[in-house]
Amino acid sequence: MPPETADAALVAAARGGDAGAFQALYQNYARMVHGILLARAPRDAVDDLLQDVFLQAYRQLPRLRDAAAFGGWLAAIARNRVRDHFRKFRETAELPLELSGPGNPAAQAEAAAALAAVRQLPEAYRETLVLRLVEGMTGPEIAARTGLAPASVRVNLHRGMKLLRERLEGRSENVKR
Predict the structure, then answer these.
(1) Are 85 and 49 in contact (CB under 8 A)?
(2) pTM, full prediction
(3) What is the pLDDT of residues 95-143, one digit of tens each?
(4) Distance between CA 173 and CA 134 in Å, rounded?
(5) Which of 39, 68, 90 is the last residue in one of the domains?
């Protein structure tokens, strides 16, 4: 069954009060929403925003016109929720890596630097890269979940990786000097 057909069936069941159907939608799309949020919001806000997005989607499910377009609709809710978050809250500073918990501080610093570099990329590349690199989604999964054309996802991943490589290489050259 194509993902759009499966989504439409799950949306119809969820609209009818089937909590299991909405749970299945959550499981199918949580990684995508997490990636979209992570590309735009501070790490410490992402989990709460993720829950807010799905709560809003659950409440507004009756308003969804095309049940087969659930993924794109949910992605739009996630993007709008991040915008609302920044309108309501002032920018906060994240804890320094050495205070933020156990683990390898060097690896955490490298991951934070890479995420910061991704967040500086144009929006189209930022989302697809986070969905691919952080959430582990494949190109076809990203296309199916977000409603983007597979060719657009491929182009965004290719161009985004090229820009990211250039930024990270430029950063390492600046550090070596």
Answers:
(1) yes
(2) 0.65
(3) 454 444 556 677 777 777 788 888 888 887 988 998 998 888 899 999 9
(4) 25
(5) 90
